[in-house]
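step: validate -> pass
step: tokenize input -> pass
step: predict -> running
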Amino acid sequence: MTSSPELTIPTPSGPVFATAQDHQDGRAVLYTLRGAVRGQVCVTGTHDRYHWDQFTALRVSFGSCDVMAELTPQESLPHLRSATTRYVGSVIRSTGEGEPYQSVQSLESTAGREPSEKTAQTLTAVLHACGEDTARRPDLPRLLDAARERDTPALLRFLTSVLAEQERDAARYEREAAEHLRDGRAAAALWWALARQLTAAFAPLPVLAWWLADYPRSLARRALVAPDWARICQQAAESQRQDHARFTAEVASLRAQQRTRHPRPKATTTGRR
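step: predict -> pass
step: emit ->
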């Protein structure tokens, strides 16, 4: 990768100057800050927040390393020139449609306090400027490829566990939907049987009227509510099935990308002598 020239960032606290350098064997860009803010910013490639198999985004983190990968050294976290309080925070810069920046780790001091409005605006400007500068680098594809190679094994493990959980949840919702339907039908059948007894009796029993009344957990309430619960459970099962299908496709895509990047060596053949 190549280093960018010094970046000048206007902020409410004054200009910040950021110098970029290659970091982690070309897998990240590290910005060293001076001026109104001192410290470092680390930018790495990452997957789109809504598409696990698409590495088209950047994670911009305060400190000298990716906040999602390891513990950030305290001394690398930024602070204002006139203060000693250091801050954490990170954003995702998406290259897709919609809002380009989304908060991942909220801006706060290392003691867990929110910054003032002016300080928050200053720090946000620094994060965004470093993300924009990295997005304009001519070697950006190499940064994103490095993220794909680094993160794919962990993503596959995560998505595989999610798929198993979604399969279990979908089956559970479908069982619950069937149970609610059976309960509703049984309650309705009994309610109508009692209603016929009530209307056919020469001297209707008061207890029959009580059994037919609508109150919590009554036959009438079960007959009315159970179909709604069945529909809710069935919708939840369908949602799980849809997510399962999407994640299955993303797992297949990630594995295909692995095979493309790491093709199997061709077997060598030797002739008989």
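step: describe -> The helical segments are 117-135, 140-200, 206-212, 219-261.
step: cleanup -> pass
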